[in-house]
Design a protein that fits this description.
About 80% of the residues lie in helices and about 0% in strands. It contains 6 helices and no strands. Helix 1 packs across helix 2. With about 130 residues, it is mainly α. It has 2 domains: about 80 residues, no CATH class; about 40 residues. The radius of gyration is 19 Å and the shape is globular.
Length: about 130
C-alpha cells in the first residue's frame, strides 16, 4: 500500500507541474516542473516521506526503460539536426560531464563520513598495488 501512496504523490506533483506549465505558459517540461515542485515541497517539509521513497526506489530500478522512449524519439527527428551535429555533440558531452560531476559532488557532500571511509578502505583493499 505504501508504494501506491508514493506513486499517487508522484503523480499528483506531475499533474501540478502540468497545470502550472499550461496556465503560465512556462518554457519547461511538465515533468521537470513537477520535479521542481516536489523538490521544493520536500525542502519545506524537511524530510522524505517513506511512501515517496518506496515508490522512487521502484522507479530508479526502471530508470533505463523510462529514458528509452526519449532516446528513441530522437531518431525520428534526426533530419532536423542536419547542420547542427557539432553543437549537439558538444551539448551531450558537456551535459554528461556536468551531470557526472554534480552527482559526484552531491554524493561526497551528503554521504556520511563513515560510509566514505569504509568505501575508501574497500577500494584500497581491492587494489593492493596502489
Amino acid at each position: 500500500m505504501s508504494i501506491l501512496r508514493g506513486f499517487l504523490w508522484l503523480l499528483g506533483f506531475l499533474i501540478l507541474g502540468d497545470i502550472l506549465v499550461t496556465l503560465l505558459g512556462l518554457p519547461i517540461s511538465r515533468g521537470v516542473a513537477g520535479m521542481l515542485l516536489i523538490a521544493i515541497w520536500l525542502m519545506l517539509h524537511g524530510r522524505l516521506d517513506d511512501d515517496i521513497a518506496t515508490a522512487s526506489q521502484a522507479l530508479i530500478r526502471l530508470l533505463a526503460m523510462l529514458i528509452m522512449p526519449g532516446v528513441v524519439g530522437v531518431f525520428f527527428i534526426a533530419d532536423e539536426f542536419a547542420g547542427q551535429w557539432l553543437a549537439v555533440a558538444v551539448a551531450l558531452i558537456v551535459g554528461t560531464m556536468l551531470s557526472v560531476l554534480t552527482t559526484l559532488w552531491l554524493m561526497l557532500r551528503f554521504m556520511p563520513k563513515s560510509a566514505r571511509s569504509s568505501e575508501e578502505s574497500t577500494t584500497k583493499a581491492g587494489h593492493p598495488h596502489e
